[in-house]
Amino acid sequence: MYWLIFDVNAFSRSYEVEVILYPIMHSTLSPHGIVRFFRVPKSGLINESSLGYHRMLTTTVLFITVLLMAQCSGSEPETTITATANVAPTAAPTPTSTLGPTATPFATPTAIPATSTVTPPAGLQRGGILRFAIPEGPPHSDPHLTASSSLASWGAGLAYSRLFKFDTANGNSTVVCDLCDTWEQTAPLTFKILLRDDVTWQNLPPLNGRPVTAQDVVYSLNRQANAGYANSPLLSNITEFTAVGEREILIRLNSPDSEVLEKLADSHSRIVAKEAVEVSGDLRRGPTVGSGPWIASEVHAETTILIANPDYDDDEFPYLDGIDIQFIPSESVRVAGMRSKVIDLAQASRDSITDARERFEEIRYIGIDNPAAGIEIALNTNRSPMDKQAVREAMMLTLDPYPILDYPGSDIIVTIVGGTYQDSSLGLPPYAGWWRIIYDFEDRFNDPDLANTLLATASLKPTDNVIIKVGEFGQEYIDQANEMAAGLASVGIRADVERVSTRVFGDEVWITGDYDIMVGAPPPISSTTAYLFAVHHSDGPWNTTGYSNPEIDRLIEAQAREYDSAKRGDMLFEIQQLILAGSHRFIAKTRTTHWMLWDYVNDFKPYTPRGDTDFLTRVWLTAKE
Questions:
Q1: 190 forms bridges with which residues in the sheet?
Q2: What pTM value is reported for the model?
Q3: Per-residue pLDDT tens for 422-432?
Q4: Which of 291, 57, 272, 267 is nearest to 153 (CA)?
């Protein structure tokens, strides 16, 4: 099964679209959310709802997508790569819409923030091999020829560095240097980046430990930007990469882009070497030689084994000797491996974890909330009676999406907090309390009396019955649709629930907007700006609710050019307020990825902005009893 990904050019009113095939690994496609550690009572698992402190969702990724079935094949380009100088990706057209506030450039020069200092934990025991299991592995080992999260985040892609990365040491999502040392914005569309002078390729042929140079980085980014390559959309607004000497790189943009550094820090923007590519013409079968903290020791279809790089530039990390990643599609097999301690941690369903804990109280649970992959509700404002603002407001008032915050007998172990508001905006307000907006708009839900009052003024017709079209993404989606139908019935609106396959849902809902009310998965997200332009802009090709607001359009266009993070954060907050005020689209519930792990696994905190899994270097093991 595949995602057909449409990369919408966020800087053009014409919305150029590039199509690529993306093998589904939905559980890790957008793993950017709130990480919670719970010690769960044996009587059952804690609900994934909000507890303790909450952080806002990281600015994540935004390619608007259509779900296709497994008939799609041959998605990876077979082109043999040859080195070319400055292969410029397709330039983004200059916007024709009215510009918003003038973008504030970064100060010149600007040093990127230093990575947080990590104090070794008390009782740290270095060494050991962490063995864990996930549902799906990568199709091959070339990070530029697949958008697979299992390669970039959980596989051999971990051997490679990036130009930038995310500082996740304290639950942050700040962009910091990986291969770079400093950077500055020398002009509105030009960045100058200075590389570190102490980074070498891993001591394996054909690189054999030589220094990483500016030419290596430029080669790799130009290769990634090749038209048709899976991760080229990340660099589509960059027109040129130039190496100046051994350490300096110039990057020129087509249009101002407030997300450019995040795209270069994306887990898919891995830096590879020309010599390695030339061994076989691509890197599908290796050799995997990077400059990161892990060396790919063994790479097979069922497993990837990585060992700590002894020559890594930060000699404090990793804490482990290595990682053994098993790709096991069967959940029952993953759970069986956990029960026998053949596996130290694994992805599993909440029910499976509950069953395992009935026998093993030493098994812990981690839930990762992901609002980008939750349950979305949208109301089609082009159809009666949703064309009336009062009716839409009343429909929302019949819902009670708020989480229960008290769980007797449960014990929160850790909640990752930190970050800033501007780090985390999807332009779509979900329900949970970590979004500041909910405190301003919580009176828009769960008030049947007010709903009846509003409907009394709306002059509904007897024929104003609606159909709730729900995608079969799982039972929780069906339950949400039925709950909404019951809520509408309580205020006199008849709503029938129509279940459709995910394929039909993609065609009829995401593409054509053929629905009265829809309940389903939101399009997987990869960039705030692209999502806002495609889904919430009046001219957006995926604006299927038909809602239009000139002020939303102006703010969407302005935030795309705003380099000052605080100003951009204020714009995004205002956009979210206006979206929710329109009562036409919101996230009713987040999706949670569940991990089960033995209590001897320490500091496994999978907070992964844009698929960044640098946290694995800080995981450590206590001696088993």
A1: 187, 252
A2: 0.73
A3: 233 333 443 33
A4: 267
Residues 6 or more apart whose Cβ sits within 8 Å of residue 249 = 163, 192, 193, 194, 195, 214, 217, 218, 241, 242, 243
Architecture of domain 148-283: Alpha-Beta Complex (3.90)
Question: How does strand 411-415 pair with strand 345-347?
Answer: unpaired
Two tokens, residue 282: 């691509």
Domain residue limits, the chain? 1-77+92-102+372-409+418-591, 148-283
Biggest alpha carbon–alpha carbon distance for the chain:
77
Length of the chain: 625
CA distance 247 to 266: 21
Predicted confidence at residue 593, as pLDDT, reads 85
Residue 100 clears pLDDT 50, i.e. is over it? no
Tokens 């970590």 belong to 434
208: left (phi over 0), alpha (psi -120 to 50) or beta: left
Structure tokens that stand for 96 in this block: 């024709």
Say how many CA atoms lie within 13 Å of 454 toward its Cβ: 22
Q: What is the rounded (10 degree) CA torsion for 77, 78, 81, 85? A: -30
One-letter amino acid at 81 equals I
Q: At what angle are helices 550-559 and 565-581 packed, to 10 degrees?
A: 160
- Whether the CB-CB separation of 294 and 306 falls below 8 Å is answered with yes
- Beta-bridged to residue 241, according to DSSP, are 251
Give CA–CA dist 621/81, Å, rounded: 41
CB atoms within 10 A of CB 322: 17
Percent above pLDDT 90 for the chain: 51
CB-based contacts of 186: which residues, under 8 Å, 6+ apart? 108, 192
Q: Residue 177 to residues 24, 145, 380: CA-CA distances in angstroms?
A: 30, 24, 44
Helix axes 331-339, 350-357, angle to 10 degrees: 30
Q: Is residue 164 a contact partner of residue 178, using CB atoms and an 8 Å limit?
A: yes
β-bridge partners, 344: none
Yes or no: say if 580 and 437 are a contact pair by the CB < 8 Å rule. yes
pLDDT one-digit tens code per residue, 201-257: 999 999 999 999 999 999 999 999 999 899 998 998 999 999 999 999 999 999 999
CA–CA separation, 182 and 191 (whole Å): 11
How far apart (Å, rounded) are the C-alpha atoms in residues 529 and 552? 13
Element holding 488 (H helix, E strand): helix 475-489
Residue 78: CB atoms within 10 A of its CB come to 9
Question: Helix, strand, or coil here: 439?
Answer: helix
Classify each residue of 183-220 as buried b or exposed e, where b means 16 or more C-beta atoms within 10 Å of its C-beta: bbbeeebebbbbbbeebbbbebeebeeebbbbebbbbb
| CA distance linking residue 289 with residue 209, whole number of Å | 10
- Structure confidence at residue 445 as a pLDDT band (50, 70, 90): confident
Strand 495-500 versus strand 466-471 pairing type:
parallel
Superfamily name with CATH number, domain 1-77+92-102+372-409+418-591? Dipeptide-binding Protein; Domain 3 (3.10.105.10)
